[in-house]
Structure formats: C-alpha cells, structure tokens
Amino acid sequence: LEVEWEEYFIPFSENTTDFLRTNNLDQSYQDVLDSYIDYWDLPRNNQIRQFINAMVQTQMSLEYVAPLNDLSTAAVGDQVNRCIFCGSNHYMAVPGGGFDKLIAGVSDPYQDRVK
To answer: CA-to-CA distance for 98 and 48, rounded, in angstroms?
Structure first.
C-alpha cells in the first residue's frame, strides 16, 4: 500500500498541482482524489482505494482543518505527504481509562478560547 501511495498517488497529486498552477486553474482536492480513483477504476471496497482515501483525509483535512471540497489544489496540492501533524501521533493516558492524542490533552484547558 505504501508503494501505491509513494510511487503513484503522490506523483499524481504533484503533477496535477503543477498542471493547475501552470494553466492558472484550480479545483478542489476532493476532485483530485476522485480523478485518481476514477483513473485507476478502483472499486469502493478496494483496499488501495480505502488506504489512499484514509491517507488523504487524515493528512489534508487534519493539516488544513477543512473538508477536501474546500481545499484549493493549486494552493495546497503539493503538500500531501508533508503534513506537519501527521508524522507521528503521541498518546497519553486519559483519567478514567483509555488513551487520547497528546495534543488533545494539552489543548483541553484552552478549548473555550478556540473560535
């Protein structure tokens, strides 16, 4: 799956971004994802499709805090796989049991200031 991501999807995303920028065009990043899936004719239950979709949703939506339909490919399309917050997730114990992402625990006291 990593080969599909690194050798196929990432270059596809970068090439699409370059094409859009060169031609002064733009589209949502959801359109890029859909184009890739359509190009390779990946069925809904395909493991590669699910992996690519999960990676894109996690990286792009997390990094830019927006749905893929709202992300400009020309602006951020070459940033996939460069997600600052996606490299590693650190977890901590949560009172009452279980684990949560460290960033959630550290930011919890400041949630009332988030707008």
So the answer is: 30
Helices (H), the chain: 2-3, 10-22, 29-39, 47-56, 62-64, 73-76, 102-107
> In sequence order, what are the residues at sequence separation of 6 or more whose Cβ sits closer than 8 angstroms to the Cβ of residue 75?
26
Q: For 29-83, write each residue's pLDDT tens digit.
A: 999 999 999 999 999 888 899 889 888 887 887 778 788 999 999 998 888 877 6
Cβ atoms 15, 69 nearer than 8 A: no
pLDDT surpassing 90 at residue 16: yes
> pTM of the full predicted structure?
0.71
- For 105, the token pair is 């625990």
With 0-12 / 13-18 / 19 or more C-beta atoms within 10 angstroms meaning exposed / middle / buried, residue 105 is middle
Beta-carbon neighbour count of residue 43 at 10 Å?
8
Residue 58, φ and ψ in degrees, nearest 5: -65, -50
Name 110's Cβ contacts closer than 8 Å, sequence gap at least 6.
Answer: none
